[in-house]
Design goal:
Layout (H helix, E strand, L loop, with lengths): L2 H14 L10 E5 L5 E6 L18 H5 L3 H12 L7 E4 L5 H10 L3 E5 L5 H6 L1 H14 L2 E5 L5 E3 L2
Parallel strand pairs: 3-4, 4-5
Antiparallel strand pairs: 1-2, 1-3, 5-6
GO cellular component, one term: cytoplasm
Keywords: Hydrolase, Metal-binding, Zinc
Cofactor: Zn(2+)
Length: 157
């Protein structure tokens, strides 16, 4: 068991609680090579955008307003001038293909995903998107691992 994997994934889950999304809360933490926190993000509206407007929380309009946790973490790093090259990303849910592109472009080397979020419903709904993300990660050399409840990791298949 790797306590660090469990801790960082737990931190991503804690950060997910900050999301005001009414259906799915996603959290992400980017960790540097010396186990330092480089950036965090959760799914939500951009800085300064009014999240009190009710219609913005309803599908399909919410998709135009909501930024994903992974990209929010990357943008937050950019905002502070923090490099993510060679870092690891811990995220509560498997990254969509838009986030996968950002992860690759930011130089993130590893992605760790919570196994408990890979439910049958999630896998069915996001199957095509996950296939594209996985293909891009494989081709670009980004390592993707799934973290079990006990903190052990397994390569994403």
């Amino acid at each position: 068991m790797n306590k660090w994997h469990h801790r960082f994934l737990g931190l991503a889950a804690h950060i997910a609680d900050w999301s005001k999304d009414r259906s799915t809360q996603v959290g992400a933490v980017v960790i540097g090579p010396k186990k330092e926190i480089r950036a965090v993000g959760y799914n939500g509206f951009p800085r300064g955008v009014d999240d009190a407007v009710e219609s913005r929380h309803q599908r399909p309009e919410k998709y135009a307003y909501t930024e994903h946790a992974e990209r929010n973490a990357i943008y937050n790093a950019s905002y502070t001038g923090t490099s993510l090259d060679g870092c690891a990303l811990y995220v509560t849910h498997f990254p969509c293909c838009d986030c996968a592109r950002a992860i690759i472009q930011a130089g993130i080397a590893e992605v760790f995903v919570d196994k408990t979020k890979l439910t049958a419903d999630f896998l069915e709904r996001w199957e095509q998107d996950m296939k594209i993300s996985t293909e891009m990660f494989d081709e670009s050399g980004v390592i993707v691992q799934v973290i079990d409840n006990d903190g052990t990791t397994k390569p994403m298949k």
